[in-house]
Design a protein that fits this description.
With 414 residues, this protein is of the alpha+beta class. A six-stranded antiparallel β-sheet has the order 2-1-6-7-8-5. Strand 20 and strand 21 form a beta hairpin. The radius of gyration is 27 Å and the shape is flat.
Length: 414
């Protein structure tokens, strides 16, 4: 017998209630496991437990979520969030988001700015500058942020005349030292950039999850990765960001991005997946490569009356496209130069006979042939195997693996 607890209160369910579960593979970027909509009778007990959401005055709360537990014969089988999809006087329609489902709901609502990454207060500008210079040549976890020197010739709306060399860079180092004021008397641009591992740990700690970082701990190079931002902490209270010269407000220095886009971007960029267990309160990150090669499996078929499998066509390759910061003039020039090459990467074909001859295809067009597992290029009016034996094509902002059947994008770039 099925029973449903909402905020520790048992709901009335119909004797013939049927709840269908949808399990989503964790190695794909989907919303998570959940149930298809099912009906809850609008008994007095249920109406009170769910906060009278069918009433007009509570219309704005229809899509609120409730902590819920689904039980079978008194044994907990699922734990997560119940969301009311439709509320009428005689019945409610709801879906249950279980295990990582409620985490998926949270990650869609939160932004990186919702998390507290810390504030540092200094006795003087000099003390702050000493600490900033001591961040040089250190990485996480010795420091939570860094000040990498990055050329940016479009940061300011107007530049002084004659030009100030230091203002051409974010975090300018003159003979290896940062200073608050350039030799020309202008306030330098100082932007702390938080280490990626610190940002991830802070997010999950704030959400009261235990974080098992098996992937990012696998190589020390991950300790050096930072998140770019453009908030100047050296402009004084009169500057654009109204920033105190005695503080470092680290929550100012994360990208303006939703948590969902941030985690999805990491999953696509590093080919990883975040595994969330709301019952144990743990999050584990694994590479898709390790998942595919793993021989372990989980048995779901016990006590299941029926299983339906969606046999969608499996993509044979993918096209990963990375974002580009609008202020990054260096990247902009490179991306512009490679656009002609990208235009020649065409859709995959099943066999060599499907390759269209010139002039239906243009010179230098490139296609992945699935039957032969090779790239072909139209060279001197003849389709020829790509000069380098490879299954992928790498560009500065784009990556193709066995063609472009599946489009993947990420807001991250290097």
């Amino acid at each position: 017998m099925l029973s449903l607890l909402v905020n520790n209160q048992s709901l009335d369910l119909s004797a013939d209630v049927s709840i269908t579960l949808k399990f989503s593979s964790p190695i794909f970027n989907t919303i998570g496991d959940y149930t298809y909509p099912f009906k809850i009778p609008a008994t007095s007990k249920n109406i009170a437990a769910l906060g009278f959401v069918h009433r007009v005055e509570n219309f704005g709360n229809v899509n609120k979520s409730y902590d819920a537990i689904l039980l079978s014969d008194g044994i907990t089988i699922l734990k997560g969030s119940l969301r009311i999809l439709k509320a009428q006087a005689d019945f409610y329609e709801a879906s249950f988001y279980m295990d990582k489902g409620d985490f998926s709901f949270k990650r869609q609502k939160a932004t990186l700015q919702d998390f507290d990454f810390g504030t540092m207060t200094f006795a003087s500008e000099g003390a702050k500058l000493v600490y900033m210079n001591n961040c040089k040549n250190t990485v996480y976890p010795a420091r939570n942020f860094s000040f990498p020197m990055i050329q940016n010739l479009s940061y300011l709306e107007t530049y002084p005349e004659p030009p100030d060399r230091a203002l051409a860079n974010i975090n300018d180092y003159w003979y290896g030292i940062m200073s608050n004021v350039s030799i020309d008397g202008n306030r330098n641009i100082h932007t702390p950039m938080l280490y990626l591992k610190y940002v991830i740990k802070t997010i999950f700690d704030s959400m009261d999850y235990t974080y098992e970082n098996t992937f990012f701990d696998s190589d020390s190079v991950f300790n050096s990765l930072v998140l770019y931002n453009s908030v100047d902490c050296n402009g004084l209270a009169t500057g654009y960001f109204n920033y105190s010269n005695l503080k470092l407000l680290l929550s100012y220095h994360v990208p303006v991005i939703s948590l969902n886009d941030f985690l999805s971007g990491l999953e696509n960029f590093f080919n990883i997946r975040f595994f969330v267990n709301n019952i144990t309160g743990t999050i584990k990150v694994l590479s898709v490569d390790d998942i595919v090669k793993s021989t372990s499996s989980t048995e779901y078929s016990k006590n299941v009356s029926a299983i339906y499998v969606d046999n969608s066509e499996k993509p044979s390759g993918f096209h990963l496209s990375m974002n580009m910061d609008t202020d990054d003039t260096y990247w902009a020039n490179i991306k512009s130069a490679q656009e002609t090459n990208l235009e020649h990467i065409k859709d995959s074909v099943d066999s060599y006979s499907d390759l269209k001859p010139w002039p239906q295809s243009k010179s230098l067009d490139c296609k992945w042939v699935r039957d032969e597992q090779k790239f072909y290029v139209l060279w001197n009016y003849v389709w020829t195997v790509f000069p380098w034996s490879t299954q992928d094509l790498q560009f500065y902002s784009d990556y193709f693996y066995k063609g472009k059947d599946l489009a993947i994008s990420t807001k991250f770039s290097t």
